[in-house]
């Protein structure tokens, strides 16, 4: 696996995989910050109202996959839910039979993770889970990730996959707590690979009024450069797990490259494989 320069900025899913596969249009999680949703609405593939209605992509579900170059991320623009599970398992099986290394990305539903783990024990060497767990606070999760599982269910999913012998990793992108270090420390004993920390890429500009205003005010404070500095200092003290910064934070720090913030950046990030 090739090494990536610690300052290199990549784009989109290329931070994690060479290609990606999706077998549904839309996502029932309906996360407020979802970039895939934003793009689907922009190009009139979906609307704000029907994005959360997941429509199966029969062309992908019935496809026989070949062995691809590098890692495959599955899925990248929808999630694996109880309603999509059967079709997701069909696609996942065809990817694995072809010998593909697959990064399974999900805001995990425990029943789904149990079914996947139990179905693909013989392919453990080709699978790594990357669970999106963005906060310890269910109030924040419920606001930002409307229909996604609770923190407790995601944590139980991580532990289940870990104890089942699968490679596990975590994405804390976007981090919703002002200080995600307690979350990192709770998750890290069950992570075999890496934990990724990132900021929110899409924050709606027209959400400054009413009862929602406090959530948008708080999230902007999370990503102030002063708070990022504090977090990087704390990250340096964590030695029992590998923490990688997502490009969303690297880009933020690059804007301050003329001052000492770049030193924090260089100290906190070790040379990594993009497949970690």
Which labels suit this protein?
36% helix; globular; single chain; two-stranded antiparallel ribbon; 7-stranded parallel sheet; alpha/beta; 276 residues; pyruvate-formate lyase- activating enzyme; 13% strand
Structural description of this entry:
The protein is an alpha/beta fold and 276 residues long. It has a single domain (3-273), classed as pyruvate-formate lyase- activating enzyme (Alpha-Beta Horseshoe). The chain has helices spanning 35-42, 58-61, 85-97, 110-119, 138-144, 151-163, 181-187, 213-222, 225-235, 247-254, 261-268, and strands at residues 3-4, 19-20, 24-25, 55-56, 72-74, 102-106, 127-132, 167-172, 195-197, 243-245, 272-273. The protein has a seven-stranded parallel β-sheet. The protein has a two-stranded antiparallel sheet with strand order 1-11. The chain starts with a strand and ends with a strand. 35% of the residues are buried. Mean pLDDT is 89; it is low at 1-11 and 260-273.
Shape designation: globular
User: Cα distance, first to last residue?
Assistant: 9 Å
CATH class: Alpha Beta
Helix content: 25-40%
Specify the number of helices: 11
Secondary-structure-derived class: alpha/beta
CATH H level: which superfamily?
pyruvate-formate lyase- activating enzyme
Quickly count the domains: 1
CATH architecture: Alpha-Beta Horseshoe
How would you summarize what this structure contains?
With 276 residues, the protein is an alpha/beta fold. The protein has helices at 35-42, 58-61, 85-97, 110-119, 138-144, 151-163, 181-187, 213-222, 225-235, 247-254, 261-268; strands at residues 3-4, 19-20, 24-25, 55-56, 72-74, 102-106, 127-132, 167-172, 195-197, 243-245, 272-273.
């Amino acid at each position: 696996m090739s090494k990536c320069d610690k300052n290199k900025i990549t784009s989109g899913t290329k931070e994690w995989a060479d290609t990606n596969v999706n077998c549904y249009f839309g996502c029932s999680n309906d996360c407020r910050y979802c970039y895939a949703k934003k793009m689907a609405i922009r190009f009139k593939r979906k609307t704000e109202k029907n994005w959360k209605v997941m429509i199966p992509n029969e062309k992908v579900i019935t496809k026989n996959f070949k062995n691809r170059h590098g890692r495959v991320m599955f899925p990248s623009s929808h999630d694996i839910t109880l309603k999509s599970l059967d079709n997701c398992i069909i696609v996942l099986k065809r990817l694995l039979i072809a010998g593909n290394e697959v990064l399974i990305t999900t805001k995990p539903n425990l029943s789904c993770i149990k079914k996947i783990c139990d179905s693909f024990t013989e392919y453990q060497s080709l699978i790594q889970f990357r669970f999106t767990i963005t906060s310890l606070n269910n109030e924040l999760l419920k606001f930002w990730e409307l229909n996604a599982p609770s923190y407790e269910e995601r944590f139980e999913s991580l532990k289940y996959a870990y104890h089942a012998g699968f490679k596990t990793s975590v994405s804390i992108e976007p981090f919703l707590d002002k200080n995600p270090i307690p979350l990192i420390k709770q998750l890290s004993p069950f992570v075999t690979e890496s934990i990724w920390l990132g900021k929110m890429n899409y924050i709606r500009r027209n959400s400054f009024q009413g009862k929602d205003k406090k959530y948008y005010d708080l999230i902007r404070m999370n990503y102030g450069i002063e708070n990022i500095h504090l977090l990087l200092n704390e990250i340096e003290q964590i030695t029992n797990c590998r923490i990688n910064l997502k490009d969303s934070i690297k880009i933020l720090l690059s804007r301050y490259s003329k001052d000492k913030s770049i030193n924090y950046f260089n100290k906190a990030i070790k040379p990594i494989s993009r497949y970690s």
